[in-house]
């Protein structure tokens, strides 16, 4: 008997039962892990469950020679933002980098959107700067001859109208809001560290005197000082655009100007000296209720080095006159509070004022977790209501069910009995996909969003395509006259190569899409890549072994008309090995064929 041709050696059947047991054990383990972890459903994204998604883009500060946007700073920012959001009591928020300079913050439903945006978007660059002078930040002064006298009554007695103006500002310079929004005011009160009496609505009148005395800094031939004085005179603190740019490019070691609101809700502008302390010198901050006044306050504790700096600073300020004895707490370029200092302090301070519980906790939260290493700007904010998210999830599930039904109908009509193997393989693939998506939620913060659902629907076609390739290879072998069992083993090597190449191309496309895109598109790419890998696992460890076992059953082996492998229906040729040829030299060389 002649040897078979090279390259046509049929592969050994192996032991298909082992592969099926392996896939069964994997399914049981994943399902058990899912229930043991307490997570029985995939974590839904903002677009399906409802909530707020904030995209932040990192920006370099003006004048920086070297970009500060690098993986180290981005990861640090993610950690700080995550701590801030968790400080709000949000248990399932997700903070992750996207690309080189974006951070995505997904906050689930039930969270105060405004509060969350303030927490994640606030850089929290905190500095303690001595006050040089103060003036009204209102654009239109209200002239009043008696207002300056009233201002003097609120401060220390003096006959100098200019000093009276400065004293009046010292009372109402307190602001406690951690952002640029004009909310609550604050004063520092810790034994000797206390602001003067709370200003009355007459503070708006004294603003006219301040405006007249705006060019308080002594004229100097120094161009930098002259430029600073000009900016101070022209600054309108009611203009949000001016407030946002007033401190751009200013280093902590340089003088600057800033805006802030007093407790009466009026804007004031300041000339501030170089920073004496920064946010890194604050060890902890807590929002508490003052037992004497019953008002919300923020208590700050300084580090060891911070206490020394604070003691040295308050010692110098306590010997100055108003407003030179004030220090401004500057948060992200805006004066949050500017209390007066009457004695030397060291380890702690208290910021008080018209705080609400929320605003006090927000400020304490930001001070506790420190400043972001980069400046971020909101690139986009998307809010989805739970009702809309539920509708989108419902629509996605319907689309998936329709796609799956169409695939099953096609398999049943065209492949008949073989469709049972394909449907079983689809169910195994679906089970593996579901359990993995559920477990990846708490493990790597994977969320099932609408694009991810689309990726799963596309994967139905990719998985079914692998079965079709294998089935068609088997049918080709049957058409050549081979019986089913050897046909399955001969068809597998060629089908395997085709399936691997096809899945590799799909996985490569998903990987490239995941790397070069940001946002929700990555959910589509991740799901597509995951299901492509699972397709390979299912085909190798379930579909092929199951097909090998089914080939031993009479229903398939004998080519029943409903098996999908009926030789007559496939147009199979009679086996060539059964053909008898004449013997002798006239018959020519024999070309043996094997079934």
What does this structure look like?
Belongs to the SecD/SecF family. SecD subfamily. This is Protein translocase subunit SecD. It is a multi-pass membrane protein. Forms a complex with SecF. Part of the essential Sec protein translocation apparatus which comprises SecA, SecYEG and auxiliary proteins SecDF. Other proteins may also be involved. With 595 residues, the chain is of the alpha+beta class. It has a 5-stranded mixed barrel, surrounded by 4 helices. Strands 2-3-1-14 form a 4-stranded antiparallel β-sheet. β2 and β3 form a beta hairpin. It is elongated and about 110 Å long. The N terminus and C terminus are likely disordered.
Q: Which shape, going by the Cα principal axes?
A: elongated
Strand content range: 5-15%
Give the N-to-C terminal Cα separation: 14 Å
Q: Which structural category fits the helices and strands?
A: alpha+beta
Overall mean confidence score, pLDDT: 75
Number of strands: 14
Question: The biggest beta sheet, please?
Answer: 5 strands, mixed, barrel
Strands side by side in the biggest sheet: 4-7-6-12-11
Tally of alpha and pi helices:
18
In terms of per-residue confidence, which ranges show pLDDT below 50 for 5 or more consecutive residues? Answer: 1-12, 145-217, 591-595
Task: Indicate the percent of residues in helices.
Answer: 40-55%
Rounded to the nearest angstrom, the radius of gyration is 37 Å
Membrane topology: Multi-pass membrane protein
Pfam family, one: SecD_1st
Subcellular location: Cell membrane
Protein name: Protein translocase subunit SecD
């Amino acid at each position: 008997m002649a040897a078979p041709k090279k390259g046509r050696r049929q592969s050994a059947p192996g032991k298909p039962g082992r592969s099926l047991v392996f896939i069964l054990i994997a399914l049981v383990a994943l399902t058990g892990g899912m229930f043991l972890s307490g997570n029985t459903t995939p974590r839904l994204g903002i677009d399906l469950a409802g909530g707020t998604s904030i995209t932040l883009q990192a920006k370099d500060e003006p004048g920086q020679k070297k970009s500060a946007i690098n993986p180290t700073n981005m990861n640090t920012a993610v950690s700080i933002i995550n701590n801030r959001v968790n400080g709000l009591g949000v248990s399932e928020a997700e903070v992750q980098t996207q690309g080189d300079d974006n951070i995505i913050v997904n906050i689930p439903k039930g969270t105060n959107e405004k509060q969350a945006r303030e927490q994640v978007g606030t850089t929290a660059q905190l500095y303690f700067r001595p006050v040089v002078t103060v003036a009204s930040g209102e654009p239109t002064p209200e002239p009043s001859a008696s207002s300056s006298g009233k201002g003097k009554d609120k401060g220390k007695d003096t006959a100098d109208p200019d000093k009276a103006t400065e004293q009046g500002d010292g009372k109402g310079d307190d602001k406690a809001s951690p952002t640029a929004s004009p909310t609550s005011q604050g004063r520092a009160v810790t034994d000797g560290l206390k602001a003067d009496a709370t200003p009355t609505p007459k503070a708006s009148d004294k603003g006219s005197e301040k405006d007249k005395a705006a060019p308080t800094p002594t004229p100097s031939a120094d161009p930098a000082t002259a430029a600073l004085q000009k900016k101070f005179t022209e600054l309108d603190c009611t203009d949000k655009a001016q407030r946002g740019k007033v401190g751009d490019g200013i280093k902590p070691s340089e003088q600057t100007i800033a805006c802030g609101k007093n407790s009466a809700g009026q804007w004031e502008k300041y000339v501030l000296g170089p920073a004496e302390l920064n946010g890194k010198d604050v060890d902890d901050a807590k929002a508490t209720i003052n037992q004497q006044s019953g008002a919300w306050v923020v208590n700050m504790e300084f580090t060891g080095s911070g206490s020394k700096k604070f003691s040295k600073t308050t010692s110098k300020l306590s010997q100055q006159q108003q407003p030179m004895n004030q220090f401004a707490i500057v948060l992200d370029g805006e004066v949050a509070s500017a209390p007066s200092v009457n004695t030397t302090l060291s380890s702690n301070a208290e910021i008080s004022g018209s705080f609400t519980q929320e605003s006090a906790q927000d400020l304490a939260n930001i001070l506790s977790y420190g400043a972001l290493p980069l400046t971020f700007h909101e690139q986009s904010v998307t809010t989805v209501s739970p009702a809309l998210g539920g509708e989108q999830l419902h629509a996605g599930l319907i689309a998936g069910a329709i796609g799956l039904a169409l695939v099953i109908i096609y398999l049943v009509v065209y492949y008949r009995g073989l469709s049972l193997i394909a449907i079983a393989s689809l169910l195994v693939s679906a089970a593996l996909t579901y359990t993995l998506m559920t477990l990846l939620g708490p493990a790597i913060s994977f969320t099932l969003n609408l694009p991810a659902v689309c990726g799963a629907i596309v994967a139905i076609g990719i998985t079914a395509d692998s079965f079709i390739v294998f089935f068609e290879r088997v049918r080709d072998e049957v058409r050549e006259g081979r019986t089913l069992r050897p046909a399955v083993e001969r068809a597998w090597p060629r089908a395997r190569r085709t399936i691997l190449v096809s899945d590799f191309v799909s996985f490569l496309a998903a990987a490239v899409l995941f790397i070069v895109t940001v946002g929700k598109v990555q959910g589509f790419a991740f799901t597509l890549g995951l299901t492509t890998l699972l397709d390979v696992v299912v085909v190798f460890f379930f579909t092929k072994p199951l097909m090998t076992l089914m080939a031993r059953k009479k229903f398939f082996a004998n080519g029943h008309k409903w098996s999908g492998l009926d030789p007559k229906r496939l147009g199979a040729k009679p086996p060539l090995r059964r053909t008898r040829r004449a013997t002798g030299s006239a018959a020519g060389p024999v070309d043996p064929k094997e079934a």
